[in-house]
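Translate sequence into structure tokens.
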Amino acid sequence: MDDVDTTPALRIATPERLTPERTEPPHRADEAGTLLGFLDYHRRTLLLKTDGLDADALRHRLPPTTMTLGGLLKHLAMVEDNWFTEVWLDERVEPWASADWKADRDWEWNSAAEDTPEELRALWDAAVARSQQTLAAALAAGGLDQESRRRHYGTGEPVTLRWILVHMIEEYARHNGHADLLREAVDGATGE
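Result follows.
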């Protein structure tokens, strides 16, 4: 991680890093190990981009977008639960189950401004822990070709565990690009 400038303009909540070191995905692994390695790499990249920021920094916007780093954390927590709990297991989990999605289709993005950094990180951590538990059980039960219990909302067909993992890597990779720009706008931090 780049050295952090400590000028008063920075909005860093704490000097310590909250995120364990990020490791490169394995160069020689089976398909599941490769996919899991890349997913973990991208998860940790997002956390590095949000490490140590206070509430104001997590709410900072870079016009014209309304996207924030806090919103990214909450959105990706929702995405984790959507694919690994709702689609894969056909189960519901809070806070998504009781959110008023009809009143606000972007509830996770918008409500993130009301959450503390600790709440956002705990929400994301819990979602990832559920995903990891679900993945371990699914891989032990039969591998990447298994199909989800719930059908894809767009096609009406189930999706494979492989498809979900590739989609999650894509989702994180895309949003990590946003996180790069948002973090640089907060305090000038760039790079990995």
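Note: Residues 49 and 183 are 6 Å apart (CA to CA).
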